[in-house]
Amino acid sequence: MRGLASIVDQLGRKTGVRQKPARSLIVAIVHAQASRKGANRAFHGADAGISNMKGYASLAQQSVEKAQEHLVVGADDLPHALSRLGPSGRSAFALRQFDLTNSVPDMTITPQSTPEQQLSESGTASLGVVVSIGDAREPASGLKSIVSLVADDMAGVNRIILDKAVSDVELIPKLAHHLIDSGGKRLRPMLTIAGAKLAGYLGDGHVRLAASVEFMHTATLLHDDVVDGSDFRRGKKSARLIWGNQASVLVGDFLLGQAFRMMVDVGSLPCLKILSNAAAVIAEGEVMQLAAAKNMATTEDEYLAIINAKTAALFAAATEVGPALAGRPGEEQAALRSYGRNLGIAFQLVDDALDYAGDSERLGKSVGDDFREGKITLPVILAFRRGSESEREFWRDSLVNGRTGDGELATAIALIRKYKAVEATLERARTYGAMAQDALAIFPDSAAKSALADVVGFCVSRTH
Asked: Which end of the chain has the lower number of beta carbons within 10 A, N or C?
C-alpha cells in the first residue's frame, strides 16, 4: 500500500478532519475482495466515512473515486459494515492498528505475505487498516458542552441510524447514507438527549426518539432539495442531482416511516403526538414557503410564520419530547418547547443572513443559493421594504422573473449591505435567542441546562 502519511494527509484534505489535534478519530478500511491491487486502491478509490469512537463526530463522506467495493467507516460502525459485506467479504478482511496519536510517521504498510498466501494459510487477508490519528475536528466552541454531555447516547443514536437506514432495496441505503453521512451537526437529536437529561429521564427511550428526530430532519432535507431544485447539500451534490427527484422523495418517505416506527417502539403516546404534530406542521411550512416563493409582497410576519413551521417546529418537538417521556409537569414541557421554538427561529434567521454574508467553504454551499432559488428570506424582505422604488423594481425583476445570475447576485448583496439587512436579521436572531435562554430559567442549574444555554450562543453567533 502507499505510504500511510500520504494516505492520512489525503483524508485530511478531503474531509477537513486535520484542522485541530484529536483524541479518538479512527479510520477503518474494509475491502471485500482479496487482491493486492484492491489493497493498494483501498484508500485511493474509496467512499470515506469518518466518525469518532464515541460516535459523535460528523460522519463526513467523500466520494474520491468510483470503487464501490471499498468502504471506509468509523470504528464504531465497523460491525455494521462487516455485516453488509456478507460471509465472503468478512473472510477477506482483517485489521491492523497503528498508534499515531503523537505524530504521523512516514511509513509504508507491507503485508508479511501476499493476500493470496494469507487467504490460503488462514482464510483471512490483511487488507484493512485501523489508524488512530489523534483528534477529530473539534466541534464549535458553543457545542462542546452539549457534545460532551450527550456523547454516550449519541453513539447509540448513530448505531440506530445505521440499523434503520438498511433495506433490501439497494437504492434506499445508498441514497440515505449519501445525506446521513455528509457531515451535519446532528444538533436536533442532541437537543432531544439534552432535554431528556434536563428532565431527569433515566430510561433509554430518548435515544430512539433522538434517532427519530434525525430521520425526520433528513427526510425534510431530501424533500426540500426537490422542492427547491437544489444541486448541492453540505458541499456535496444533492441526492436529487445524483439519483433524481422521484428517488429522493421516496427515500425521504422511507425515512419518515422508519422514524414513526421507532416512535411507536418507544411506546409513549404523548411523544408520538408531539412528533407527529411536528411532521404535519413542517409539511405545512413547506407549502407556505412554496406559496411565498418569488412573492415580493411577503411580509416579515408571514415569513416568520413560515420558518416557525418549517424549521422551528422540529426544534420545539425535539426538546419537548424529553420531559414528555419523563412525565414531567406541563410547565416544564412548555418551557422546553418554547426554548426549542425560539432557538429554531434564531437558527434559521442566522442561516438566512449567512446566505448573503457567509463564506462558501465554511457553509458547505454557495453564497446566494437562496437568491438563485428565488427564496424570499428576511434579508431580502428588509432590503426590499427599505429600498427606493427603482431598487424594489430590481428585486421584482430578479426574483420574480428569475434573473438571478452572478451580476444580479452582486447587486442584491450590495443592496442588502446598503440597508443593513444582514445586521437587522442577526439582531432579530439574537432576540429570539434571548427568549430561548429565558425559557430555561425555571430549571435548576445543571450540566444539561448549561449545555442548552451554550447551544443558544452557538446558534446566534455561528459562521456556518
From this structure: C
201 and 291 together in one domain: yes
Q: Sign (positive/negative) of CA torsion 26, 32, 36, 37?
A: negative
Q: Are residues 112 and 187 in the same domain?
A: no
62 and 165, same domain (yes or no):
no
- CA dist 70 and 81 (Å) reads 11
CATH code for position 428: 1.10.600.10
pTM of the shown model: 0.70
Alpha-carbon gap, residue 411 to 402, rounded angstroms: 14
Is the same domain home to 180 and 149? yes
Number of separate domains in the chain: 2
Terminal-to-terminal C-alpha distance of the chain: 37
What is the block-wise mean pLDDT of the chain (464 residues), using blocks of 10 residues?
Answer: 44 43 36 37 35 31 32 40 41 34 35 41 39 38 89 93 85 81 83 97 95 93 80 73 83 92 96 97 92 90 96 97 96 98 97 83 66 92 96 94 91 96 97 97 96 95 76
